[in-house]
Amino acid sequence: MAPKLQLASITARNLDEAFFLCIRHLFQKGRIYKIDRGSYEGHRRLEYDFITVQISHPGERPLTPILPQGVPPPTDEETVQNYAATYLMTDQPAPNEQYTYGQYLSSQFPKVIEMYRNDGHETNQAYMAVGDATSIDLEHPPCLRGVDTRISHGRLHFMLYFRSWDLWGGFPENLGGLQLLKEYMASEIGVEDGEIIACSKGLHIYDYAWPSALARLGGQLPESSVITQEEAEKGEDL
Question: What is the distance between the alpha carbons of residues 15 and 164, in angstroms, rounded to a whole number?
């Protein structure tokens, strides 16, 4: 009998804690495989089968990770601000980009705002889709595929789905930018900012980023890790 997929769940207070906990837990519960198709084909990555990450206070600043001294940050506050403004809230791709999330979201989030304003808060229809039937033909289809919303207890919450998700290179910038979008929408609707619940069947760290992820943990793997200390330290150079 084939083994069951392993379902992981992380609960965190803010974006920095979620980033740290996901890295530590991934070293303990992830699976390693060599990429046959997609970004960084031929590389190895450590990946969850499926994970849900619930963040109760994603608006706490800073929105970017707090790293040990000497560890290069995957992003910064200015980059996150620009990401929200240019990649999520407008529809013009940058040069050499096949798509931008704003290509899909920029026409939808104003409608969600109006839906809540005009029709009340009790609805399950305020869902924003990313991608379409032609996305599968792209060399690199969108990773974020849906932004669902709910207003509960006077707070706007985001429920996100990523088909694939780079924990080191994407997670901090994606969630920081989406948090800024959520704050804007909450302000326009007239409610408080709420939680983020994100899930993915492909949250991963590429082998070239294993040393950086290890450094985020203070240079020492947690107990019962699925890779050795040497593998984590050398990454793609192993």
Answer: 19
pLDDT tens digits, 87-140: 999 998 777 778 899 999 999 999 999 999 999 999 999 999 999 999 999 988
- Give the number of other CB atoms < 10 A from CB of residue 24: 17
> Is the per-residue pLDDT at 220 higher than 90?
yes
Per DSSP, 144 falls in state: E
| Inter-axis angle of helices 109-119 and 171-189, nearest 10 | 40
Query: Are the C-beta atoms of 21 and 10 separated by less than 8 Å?
Result: yes
Hunting for tokens 């609707």 — which residue is that? 189
| 8 A C-beta contact, residue 177 and residue 84 | yes
Q: Which two tokens stand for residue 63?
A: 């929105």
Q: pLDDT category, 39, cuts 50, 70, 90?
A: confident
**% of the chain residues with pLDDT over 70:** 100
Architecture of domain 7-60+71-89+98-237: 2-Layer Sandwich (3.30)
Rounded to the nearest 5°, which phi and psi values hold at 194? -125, -150
Residue spans of the domains in the chain: they are 7-60+71-89+98-237
- Give me the phi and psi of 9, to 5 degrees please: -140, 130
CA–CA distance from 16 to each of 125, 180, 183, 205 (Å)? 31, 15, 18, 16
Residue 212 pLDDT:
97
- Strand 192-200 to strand 155-162: parallel, antiparallel, or no bridges (unpaired)? parallel
Q: Does a cis peptide bond (omega within 30 degrees of 0) precede residue 62?
A: yes
